Amino acid sequence: MKLFSVTFLALLSASNAFTLPFSNGAATSIHRGGMQSSNSALASTIEKADTDVDLESFLNEGDLEGNFPMRAKFEKTLREAQISITKAIEEIDGEATFQEDSWQRPTGGGGKSRVLSEGKVFEKAGVNLSVVYGTMSREALRAATEKGDEIVKDMAPDEKVPFFACGLSSVMHPRNPFCPTMHFNYRYFETDGGAWWFGGGTDITPSYVNEDDMKHFHGTYKEICDKHDPNYYKEFKAWADRYFVIQHRNETRGFGGIFFDDQNEKDPEDIFAFSEECLNSVVKAYGPIIEKHKDDEFTQKQKEWQLMRRGRYVEFNLVYDRGTIFGLKTGGRIESILMSLPETARWEYDHVPEPGSPEAEFIDVCKNPRDWV
Amino acid sequence: MKLFSVTFLALLSASNAFTLPFSNGAATSIHRGGMQSSNSALASTIEKADTDVDLESFLNEGDLEGNFPMRAKFEKTLREAQISITKAIEEIDGEATFQEDSWQRPTGGGGKSRVLSEGKVFEKAGVNLSVVYGTMSREALRAATEKGDEIVKDMAPDEKVPFFACGLSSVMHPRNPFCPTMHFNYRYFETDGGAWWFGGGTDITPSYVNEDDMKHFHGTYKEICDKHDPNYYKEFKAWADRYFVIQHRNETRGFGGIFFDDQNEKDPEDIFAFSEECLNSVVKAYGPIIEKHKDDEFTQKQKEWQLMRRGRYVEFNLVYDRGTIFGLKTGGRIESILMSLPETARWEYDHVPEPGSPEAEFIDVCKNPRDWV
C-alpha cells in the first residue's frame, strides 16, 4: 500500500493538489467560534463570501486518527502562513485586498481560498489552504497518475484508499513584465498503514533574465536548505528543473527553485521544521524582487512577451500539472484550482524571438537550466 | 482490429487530429513542380516560410494501397477548400493575409498550415491541411484515448497499427465580441483490413446570444444535412452538444453545430459528397455573421467577457480535446496544433455574470443547449 499511496498522492500534490478533492461546499454556512486572533488583524481587509464556512480548524477534533498532533501542527502553520503571506502581498500591492472563500468538504475536511484580483502591482494572486481526508476511489487514482493503471491493477473495482492531506498552495502573477510570477506549495500527507510524508517547493517564473534576482531567490532557499541538510539544495533544485517542464515545447516553465516530495526518511519533526522554514521564507525570497521591479518602465512589446510567457504557464498548468488535471476531472472546486491561471495570456503563431535579444536569452535559459548560486 | 482502429483514430480526430502525427519537417525543402493552378491566384498574398515543402500532394503516388482514388480525391477537396476558405477570410478581413508553412512527415505524408495573425477583423485564423500515414505505436494509442488500456491490452508491446488519415481543420477567432469563433474539421481515415470512415463537423462559439445568427448557422447545416439524410441534422447536432463540453464547468464550449464520426455505413461516395458539401459551406454558414457584426460597437466590459470565453476555449482545447493532448504529448508540430488557441484569453477569479444580464443568458445556453432551427 505504501508504494502506490506515495506515488499517487505525491503526483497529485505537485501544485494545486490541496484544492482537488473539494466539492464546492457552498451549501453549508457554519461559523464556529469566530476568527483566530492572528486572523483578526487582517479581517477588515477581507471580503467574506456568502458561502463562507470559517472554522478554526478543518480537522475533526473528536477523531484522533493517524499522527493527529502533526496534522494539527501543520494545519496551524499553514493557516498562519496564509495570513502572513497575504498580508505582506497586500502591503506590496498597496491597493487591492484578498477576497476569502471558505468551504467544507462533505466527506471530510475543508479549505479556504484567498484571492487578490486587479491589484496595482499584482494582476492576480491566490493562496489556497486545504485540509482534506477520507477515501479515494480506484477511478480517482487512475485519473491521478501516469502509473495509475499499474497501481490500481490489484485493487478491487470498489476499493477505496484512506488518506489525509493538508497543504497551502499559491500562485502570484504581477503586472510588470520585470516582476516574476511565483508559485509555492507545502503539504503533509498520511495514508494507510501509518505511511506519511512531506512535499513542497517554491519556484519562480520570470519573463526576462535577471541574474541578481535569481541569485537572491535561489540563494534564499539554498541558505535554508543548507541549514537542514547539505544535499537538499542540489537535490531539490534539480527536482524543480525536472518537474516544471513544458514537455511539448522542450522548455522549463520558469527558472525553478526547489521542489521535493515523498520526504519521510528523517524524523518528522525535522522535515516539519524544514517545510515550515521554507514556507515562512516565501516573502523574504520573493518580496524584494517585486519591490525592486514593480515600477520598472516597459514597452508594449515587453508586456506582450510577458503575456506569451503567461500562455506557457497556462499550457503547463492545464496539460501537465497532475493536481490541476485530476481536480478538473474529478469535481474539485474549480475556482480554487484555476486561480493559478493568469488574468491574461497570449498566443502568437510561431513566435520566435530575434537571435541575441533578451527574449532569446530567456528561452535559452528555459532550454538549459542554469545554476544561479 | 476494426474496433480499436475506429475508436482510436476517431477519438484522435476530434479537432486538430491532422496535425498530430507530424514532426516538424523543417529540415527538408523539396519544391516539386510549383504550385497548383488553383493555388497561384492566392500565391501573391501568402508568405512562404523558409521551411516550406510545397508538394502537389502528400500522397505517395507510387503506392496504391487502400482506396487510393478516395485518398487522392479527398486530399484534392481539402486543398481546394483550404485555398477558397482562406481567400474568403482574407477578403472579409480586408487587411491581413495568411502565412503558409508546409512540411513533410518523415514516416509518411505531410501538411500545410495557413495562419492569419493580427488582422483587422480576425485576431487569429488558421486552416491546417494534413495527410498522414504509416503506423502508430501502442504507446501512441494508449495516450490517444480513454479506452487506450482496454484497446491495447491484447497488443504486443512493439505492435504497430497501420493507418492513413487526411483532413482539414480550422479555428477562427475574430476581434469583435459580437463575432463568434468558428471551428471545423473534416477528415477521412483508413486502417488495417480495409476499414475506412469519415468524420467531421463545423461548430460555432459566440460570446453573446444572437438567435438570428444561430438560425443562420445551424439552418445552413440543417439544409445540407437534410439533403443527404433526414436523420443527419438531429443526430449530428446532438453529437456536437455532447462532444464540445467543458466538463469541469458543466458548460458547452459554444453553441454547437454538427459533429459526426465513424461514418462508414453508406456508399463512401455518398459520405464523401456530404463531407465535401459541409466543408464547402463553411464560408456560407459563417461569413455573413462576421460581415454583419465586424463593426458592431462594444464596451471594454464586453471585450473582457469575450476574452473570458476565450479562456474557456483554451480550457477545452488543452484539457479535453483528444487530438490536441495526444499531439502535444507525442511530438506533433506544436505551432500547427496550438494555432487553435486565441491570441488573448482572460481568467477572472470566480466571475459570475449578473442575473438577467446578456452574459448570464449566454451561460444559460451553455448549460442548456438550445434547438435553433
Describe this structure in words.
The structure is a homodimer of 373-residue chains. Chain A has helices at 2-12, 37-43, 68-93, 138-144, 148-152, 211-228, 232-243, 268-279, 282-293, 300-320, 322-329, 334-337, 358-367, and strands at 47-48, 98-104, 109-117, 122-137, 160-174, 181-191, 195-205, 245-246, 251-252, 257-263, 344-346. Chain A contains 13 helices and eleven strands. Chain A has a single domain (2-367), classed as Coproporphyrinogen III oxidase, aerobic (oxygen-dependent coproporphyrinogen oxidase, 3-Layer(aba) Sandwich), CATH 3.40.1500.10. With 373 residues, chain A is an alpha+beta fold. Residues 1-51 and 143-148 of chain A have low confidence and may be disordered. Helices cover 41% and strands 23% of the residues of chain A. Chains A and B meet through helix 10, helix 11 and strand 11 of A and helix 10, helix 11 and strand 11 of B. Strand 11 (344-346) of chain A pairs antiparallel with strand 11 of chain B.
